[in-house]
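In the design runs reported in the main text, the only information available to the sequence generator was the tokenized backbone. The following block is the verbatim input for one such run; it is reproduced so that readers can re-run the procedure and compare outputs position by position.
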């Protein structure tokens, strides 16, 4: 469903709301990652966005890589 919704939104040139966009990490997920709690962060991210495990992990890893480059 998420894939079809994203494809439809993309086709209509309509951005997804943050709650449905798996690339958006909410503050609570970022706080968990900053505290070193990757598993809980992935779980919370999946619950909030409905994305799969692999995509949630990829998004969390991307956040950590970007955060470490900024430091």
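Verbatim output:
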């Amino acid at each position: 469903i998420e894939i079809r919704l994203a494809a439809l939104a993309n086709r209509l040139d309509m951005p997804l709301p943050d709650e449905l966009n798996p690339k958006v990490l909410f503050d609570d997920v970022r706080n968990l990652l900053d505290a070193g709690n990757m598993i809980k962060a992935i779980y919370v991210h999946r619950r909030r966005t409905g994305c799969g495990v692999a995509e949630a992990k990829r998004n969390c890893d991307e956040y950590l890589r970007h955060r470490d480059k900024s430091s």
